[in-house]
Structures are given as structure tokens and as C-alpha cells.
Amino acid sequence: MMAIEDYDFVPLRIDTEIKPFKSRDNDLNGFLFDDAQKYLTDLMAVTYLLEDTSSDRTVAYFSLLNDKITFDPEQYSIWNRLNRRIANAKRRKHYPAVKIGRLAVSEEYAGQGIGRDIIRLVKYMFTHGNRTGCRFITVDAYSDAVGFYQKCGFDFISEKDRNDVTRLMYYDLKRFLDE
Known about the structure:
Layout: E1 8-11, H1 26-41, E2 46-52, E3 57-70, H2 76-83, E4 94-105, H3 114-125, E5 136-142, H4 146-151, E6 155-156, E7 166-172, H5 173-178
Parallel strand pairs: 4-5
Antiparallel strand pairs: 1-2, 2-3, 3-4, 5-7, 6-7
């Protein structure tokens, strides 16, 4: 089993030729090949590739964009739990976040812990040498990925979306610093 360190970590550029990649999700495949460079050009999201140079393949990719968590009075108990970790003087109605817009691992490399390693890398990126204040990571998790994100320490922001195709989830980066 290979670790994330065994692959090249490459920020996607406008002129990047994307190496072969196929995950189990056609929507995620389509984003990488059809939309990721457009999102970069429009300053909407930045995509990072993990590449296996020995097989000339894309192992995985993830896209990041800015986000915020906003207080929802109808979800007071969840907001209260989220707010408890923040000093009273610093509490707000909005908190800065980074959103994982897309995250996919190639079928060939699935089941090796690469997705978990990518989540740890994102946590590290936004707690060490970060260029902006960012307290949370958010993700709109597809229902079949909710368990994965829960194992990575993510919680639900709301119960309103429990029957939707995706669930909005968050991770408090202070927890990562405390681990």
C-alpha cells in the first residue's frame, strides 16, 4: 500500500495536461476533465492533483474554494455546539471556511487511505502557513461519502438536509491543532 507521499502533488494549471483518471463517480470525472481548469480561470476554485509518474496516471484530485459557515436560527443546538469552542469575544454570525468542492480517488487506487490522507493534507494546509484566517473546512458530502467524512472528524451543520442528495458538513481546524 502506497502513501500519499509516494505521489507527486501538483497544482492544476491552465495548461496542465491531465493524466488518465477514472473514479466511480461520473460527475467527479467530468469535473476534472471538463470544469476544473474553467473554475481556475474564473478564480472560483483551485484543483490539486496527485500523480503517479511511474504509471503516468492521476491518482486523485481535490478542489478547494472559499466558504463561510453562517448562523441558522433554526439550527440553534448545532450552532451552539459549534460556537462553544470559540471564545465569547470572538463569536460571530459567520466564520471563515475553506470548502472541499470536489475530492475523488481513481478506482485503481481506491481503498488505500488516499482520501483520508488528502483530508489530513487539507487540514495541515490551513493550519500551518495559511495565508488567511480559516477556522473550518466545509464539504457538501454525497450521501455515500458521509461516513467517510464522519471518520475524518466532520460533523453536520444542519439537520434540514438529512434527506438531500448531499449533506453540508464541517470540521473545526482547532481540533487538528489539538490532536
